Amino acid sequence: MINELMSILSHEPLAEDTYCLVLHGKMVHEIKEPGQFVHIRMDGFYLRRPVSISDYDPLNETITLIYKVMGDGTEALTKQNHSLEVLGPLGQGFPIDQIHANHALLIGGGVGVPPLYSLAKQLRRKGVSVTSILGFRSKEEAFLLEDFEALGDVHITTENGTLGRCGRVTDVLSEMAGNCDMYFTCGPTAMLKAVANDLPDTPGFLSMEERMGCGIGACFACVVPSKDEKGYKRICCDGPVFRAEEVVL
């Protein structure tokens, strides 16, 4: 983990209220796993903003972040075009070196989609087949579709039916579940719970979205009940990625 003033190489709208931010700096060499995140400092705001890492390229020393405007902080972030103070990489990601699967099912909802992209790329490099279910509220909010399609089969759902199947990711989950031997999911807690309940006999990993304070485990502002004797796990440092059997949703 380092704190670095990173240069902004590009910062463009990607979908409705969604932006793609590419940063340049040495921090990329500290990333250990897909699914980690960074904490961005914004002038005029007391708390940093956590953003998951969508992709990273050590050769060119770039980190790609995809975020959605959710409030004043992320709205202010859209105006940045030169450099940003970034703390990271933070958290525990998907343990790519420990994953042994033939066919992986990736389920992402909204801003839970970005951290799954780097995971999908690394799974394909390991020879794992990838099927993705990506859920959005509407066609206008969808992104990274062609990127995921280049890595395997993709199934799209939108809540208003403007793209793919009308409904939520769990509406097509049962059709895909029998073909996979491991799943990975990121999105709202309600979605994670529904996925875990629908795939009780399949090993899986959950990446949780949560508001954070310090981002390093000191403030206990982001916790989730644990199934072990410790009581709670801190999403920012024990996660955001957990084995499905580790936490109580």
Task: Write the SSE topology.
Blueprint: E1 2-15, E2 18-24, E3 37-41, E4 49-57, E5 62-68, H1 72-77, E6 83-90, E7 103-109, H2 114-125, E8 129-136, H3 145-149, E9 153-158, E10 165-166, H4 170-177, E11 182-187, H5 189-198, E12 204-208, E13 223-225, E14 232-234, E15 241-243
Parallel strand pairs: 7-8, 7-11, 8-9, 9-10, 11-12
Antiparallel strand pairs: 1-2, 1-6, 2-5, 3-4, 3-6, 4-5, 12-15, 13-14
Short description:
This protein is α/β, with parallel strands linked by helices. Helices cover 16% and strands 37% of the residues.
Query: How many extended strands?
Result: 15
Give start-end ranges of low-pLDDT stretches: none
Q: If helices are DSSP runs of H or I spanning 4 or more residues, what is the number of helices? A: 5
Number of domains: 2
The main sheet orders its strands as 10-9-8-7-11-12-15
Q: Might you state the CATH topology name of the largest domain?
A: Rossmann fold
Strand content: 35-45%
Please give the CATH architecture of the largest domain. 3-Layer(aba) Sandwich
Mean pLDDT: 94
Order of helices and strands: EEEEEHEEHEHEEHEHEEEE
| Secondary-structure-derived class | alpha/beta
Radius of gyration: 17 Å
Gap between N and C termini, in Å? 28 Å
Per CATH, the superfamily of the largest domain is Nucleotide-binding domain of ferredoxin-NADP reductase (FNR) module
Proportion of residues in helical segments: 10-25%
Major β-sheet annotation: 7 strands, mixed
Global shape? globular
Q: Can you identify the CATH class of the largest domain?
A: Alpha Beta
GO molecular function: 2 iron, 2 sulfur cluster binding; electron transfer activity; flavin adenine dinucleotide binding; metal ion binding; oxidoreductase activity
Domain Oxidoreductase FAD/NAD(P)-binding: 106-196
Protein name: Dihydroorotate dehydrogenase B (NAD(+)), electron transfer subunit
Keywords: 2Fe-2S, Electron transport, FAD, Flavoprotein, Iron, Iron-sulfur, Metal-binding, Pyrimidine biosynthesis, Transport
